Structures are given as structure tokens and as C-alpha cells.
Amino acid sequence: MALLTLSDIRVRYGSVEVLHGINLHVEEGEIVTILGANGAGKSTTLLSISGLVRPFAGEIMFDGTPLLRLPSHEVVGLGIAQSPEGRRVFGAMSVLENLRLGAFCIRDRARSERTLEWIFDLFPRLLERREQLAGTLSGGEQQMLAIGRALMAEPRLLLLDEPSLGLAPLLVRSIFETVRAINRRGVTVLLVEQNARAALKLATRGYVLEVGRVVMADRAENLLADASVREAYLGG
Questions:
Q1: Please, what is the end-to-end C-alpha distance for the chain in angstroms?
Q2: Quick one: average pLDDT of 171-180?
Q3: Can you tell me the distance from the alpha carbon of 9 to that of 50, in angstroms, rounded to the nearest whole number?
Q4: What distance in Å separates the CA atoms of residue 222 and residue 100, rounded to the nearest whole number?
Q5: Who's near 160: CB < 8 A, 6+ residues apart?
Q6: Element (H or E) spanning 228, and its range?
Q7: How far is Cα 104 from Cα 100, in angstroms, rounded to an integer?
Q8: Which pLDDT does position 149 carry in this prediction?
Q9: Where are the domains positioned within the chain?
Q10: Which fold has domain 1-79+155-166+181-236?
């Protein structure tokens, strides 16, 4: 059984249907990426998994548990955490306060402290800035904080929405290396990313969305080599 399965997921915003029967699965231990142009439905797919958008049809299963009727905080409690597009850190709170908020579902303080130590190992800059207000961090530091905050929930599945958006190439490389390290630690990753080349080099498999439909699904190396994918997303 796959860790995560989406079956015929359909979502409306008002009267407009934006996801037209999404089918995908993620096996435990994988890094899977979702590619597509702006407006293709990538972020909506992640929001549907995390319970922040409610599909009107279909089924989402996580390790055998149906998610569609669960509130988002219970989804987190099951082992799914999301680092959202645009980072959305709490700017008037410190780095440490933001991180501790991510552990709201963890009752064991000692476990949370161990997770915090791991996050500071992953992102030493956050340790240096731990008392600084999150709103004063650079874009790259805020992205580290958004990922770290999600990891504080000790997820089995990490949803990453555009982690490289607006970052300099050197920082993008660093963020993707960290995602690989997170995955080696045993965290499964579902990644939405505009930087298709970097995402496919990182991922095991990929899905291509166009206007709310999956139009391609294959191993990452096959998508990298596919002429239509290269022309549409990799610059030829």
C-alpha cells in the first residue's frame, strides 16, 4: 500500500472546477515532484492533502486512513506537515517561537527538543538567529524557517510548496541538498516546484499537471529526458 494515494480528486473554487480528477500516489521513502505552469493546480493539490481545501469528490488515503473529512490539525497529527508557498512565517514572533509553534501536536517536550536540535543541525543559520524576529530574516532564512517549522511536527510526509521561489541559485542548491538530507532521515517528500530541472534531479518520480489534470507521470529521469517536458519546462 502506498503511503499517500489521491483518487479522482476534484476541487472547486466557487463554481469553477480547478482539479479535474487528480490521481497520484507516493510511496514511503520517496521524493515525488509535481510540475506544471502557474494555475495548473499544484498548490491546490497540496492544500487538499493537508485539509486546507476541501475536495467535493474523490478520496485521499494516508497510510490506510481517509483524510477528506478530517480538519487540518488532525491531518498534521497523523504525520503530514506542509511548508507553504510564500513561507508564511509569523513575522512578529522570533525564530524559536515560530519553530515551537510547529510542534503544537507533540506532547513530549523532550522529543520536541531533540527535533529542534536536528533542525538547528540542518539549518545552523536558524540557531544563530533563534532570538531574531522572523520578519527581519532574509528570504532564504525564512524558507529555512518554514521548512524547519513543518519538521517540528515530526511528519512522515513533508509537503513542500515552491521552496526555491525567489531565492538566489546558490541558496536554491543549498535548500535542495537539505531536502535530500531530510529524506535520508526517513521523511517522505511531496514537492511542488517551478524549478523543474532541479526538482527532477532530486525526485524519484514526477507528475506533470496541466489545467487541473495529470497529463504525465513517470520516473524523474524519464521526465528529464522527455522532449515535450524539456520544451515546456526545461527550456528545450
A1: 37
A2: 88
A3: 13
A4: 40
A5: 82, 83, 147, 179, 189, 190, 191, 192, 193
A6: helix 227-233
A7: 7
A8: 93
A9: 1-79+155-166+181-236, 86-149
A10: Rossmann fold (3.40.50)
* CA 121/CA 174 separation, integer angstroms: 14
* pLDDT exceeds 80 at position 33: yes
* φ, ψ dihedrals at 215, nearest 5°: -105, -20
Say if residues 24 and 217 touch (Cβ distance below 8 Å). Answer: yes
pLDDT, one tens digit per residue, over 1-16 is: 799 999 999 999 999 9
Structure confidence by residue, pLDDT tens digits, 63-113: 999 999 899 999 999 999 999 886 788 778 999 999 988 887 777 778 878
* pLDDT single digits (tens) 210-232: 999 999 999 999 999 998 888 88
Please state, in angstroms and rounded to a whole number, the distance separating the CA atoms of residues 206 and 208.
7
* The C-alpha cell that represents 139 in the structure block: 528570504
What is the Cα–Cα distance from 33 to 23, expressed in whole angstroms?
14
Q: Could you give the CA distance from residue 149 to residue 94 in angstroms, rounded to a whole number? A: 12
Strands (E), 122-167: 157-161
- Using left for φ > 0, alpha for ψ between -120 and 50, and beta otherwise, residue 164 falls in alpha
Please state whether the predicted TM-score (pTM) of the whole model is above 0.70: yes
